[in-house]
Amino acid sequence: MDINSYGRQLTNAEIDAKEHRDFVGGLWDELGLLQLRFLRERGLQPGHRLLDLGCGALRGGIHFIRYLEPGNYYGADINASLLEAGRRELAEANLADRKIHLLVTDRFEVGRFETTFDFGIAVSVFTHLTMNHIVQCLVEVRQVLRPDARFYASWFEAPAKARMAPLTHDPAGIVTSYHCDPYHYAFDEIRWMADLAELDVENIGDWGHPRGQRMLAFARG
User: Fold this and answer.
1) Which of 116, 118, 140, 194 is the most exposed, fewest CB within 10 Å of its CB?
2) What's the mean per-residue pLDDT of the chain?
3) What pLDDT sits at residue 21?
């Protein structure tokens, strides 16, 4: 399923040159640490089981894997080459023995992990998805959330529904659109998508993202 351009497979030479760090958006250390800090502030403990959806080359995963007890990190991504790059990053960080679980899927099939989760996170994923793909993602995620779990997802917020004009987001000047990648959505549209997936949603808003992405929290009703 061709969701966006992030399915392009990187070559071994590109991975060796660490081009995967730029491929997933750069800000490697800053955004990785931000994710861990955010979830720890929200209650993530080493004994919790975490779903990292759209984990890519483990920009955040490196920090989660170091923090969590072995076996508690589950990462899913559309791009097999990025997961391979992530494995190499883990080896370089002396974390290859942490019993992680990685899954390649282009349909958000996180039920294939055959477990449930205390926390989930998807950073810079909804920013590249159409509405129907977001709904599909939420439906799949709902099936694996424990009753008191939270699934956090970043997105570019629009000030009104069906905002057709482009938007520029401070502080990085990222320009988003209603009809092409990267996308923006109003919270009312996010809430409608959550309703379709039978999830509650909270607009957390600013969480310190350097490119102006906002944060959502989804939970089972």
Assistant:
1) 116
2) 94
3) 81
Strands 50-53 and 73-77 come out as parallel
Instruction: For residue 144, give the 3-state DSSP assignment.
Output: coil
Average pLDDT over residues 10-36: 83
Instruction: Compute the Cα dihedral for 97, 59, 121, 55 and give only its sign.
Output: negative
157: left (phi over 0), alpha (psi -120 to 50) or beta: beta
Which phi-psi region, left, alpha or beta, contains residue 202 (left: φ > 0; alpha: ψ -120 to 50)?
A: beta
Burial class (CB in 10 A: 0-12, 13-18, 19+), 24: buried
Q: Which residues of 102-134 are buried (b: 16+ CB within 10 A; e: fewer)?
A: bbebeebebeebeeebbbbbbbbbbbebebebb
d(CA 41, CA 148): 16
Domain count across the chain:
1
Q: What is the pLDDT of residues 41-70, one digit of tens each?
A: 999 999 999 999 999 999 999 999 999 999
Q: Please say if the pLDDT value at position 2 is more than 60.
A: no
Give how far Cα 160 sits from Cα of 80, 109, 153, 216, Å.
Answer: 36, 31, 19, 17
pLDDT of 130 > 60? The answer is: yes
Q: What is the CATH number of the domain that holds 205?
A: 3.40.50.150
8 Å CB contact between 9 and 81: yes
Tell whether the model's pLDDT for residue 171 goes beyond 80: yes
Angular region, 200: left φ>0, alpha ψ -120 to 50, beta rest: beta
